[in-house]
Specification:
The protein has 95 residues and is of the alpha+beta class. The protein has 3 helices and 2 strands.
């Protein structure tokens, strides 16, 4: 986010013209859609600030499998788990 803001300042965009879309376009993956699924390998549960702006509504899948061993079968497990989830995009379910 800091790098994006620095580039916005460098390009002379005035604060009153700054929008979420403008900020998003300056991010490392600007112009690409936000991720739907983020797979975290090695049993780690922390986010490490990875795509923190773009991943606000992403679903996370963690696996104890380390990256070098993450194969097609592991990807299938992640996709099956993802397909079972109800995407809420920030909405809260009513009790």
């Amino acid at each position: 986010i800091l790098d994006a803001v620095r580039h916005i300042i460098q390009d002379g965009i005035p604060p009153e013209n700054l929008t979420e879309e403008t900020l998003s376009s300056y991010m490392y993956i600007g112009g690409l859609p936000d991720p739907d699924l983020i797979i975290r390998t090695g049993g780690e549960w922390r986010l490490s600030n990875f795509l923190i702006w773009q991943a606000a509504y992403a679903e996370y899948y963690t696996t104890p499998t380390y990256w070098p061993d993450f194969d097609e079968a592991e990807l299938d497990k992640a996709l099956i788990e993802y397909s079972r989830r109800e995407r809420r995009f920030g909405r809260v379910l009513k009790p």
